[in-house]
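User: Hi! I'm working on a homework problem where we have to compare a predicted structure to a textbook description. Could you give me the structure for the chain below?
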Amino acid sequence: MKKHHVLPGLLLAGAAFLSSCEDNVERYCFTVSDREPTSGTRVTFNGTCSEGVKLYHWNFGDGTDTVTTSPSVDYAFKSPGTYEVSLHGTTPEIVDHCPPNAGPTGARQTVTVK
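Assistant: Happy to help. Predicted structure tokens:
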């Protein structure tokens, strides 16, 4: 009778599963076309520097968020104020194994609207 050693394989698969949710610390970044726009002016946020992202989860800090497949998004703030814009990405590993926005906090930048 052959003995099958399944446990070591399961442990390795489990380690890979866990690491895919936790290895995104350096993955997310974005640029801002204007950090001090006037209200109503379109600002471009560009996340092309983020690695391996499939879906871009943008939060503009004013109660508005959007999910795009494109790394670039335009947004116009309606009111003056200071807003913390954040980007969380969904990579192929996260789509397959992890809940949305799992792992680290993503990238954040402040925009001050006049």
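For your comparison, note the following. Residues 7-22 form the longest helix (16 residues). The chain has two helices and seven strands. Good luck with the assignment!
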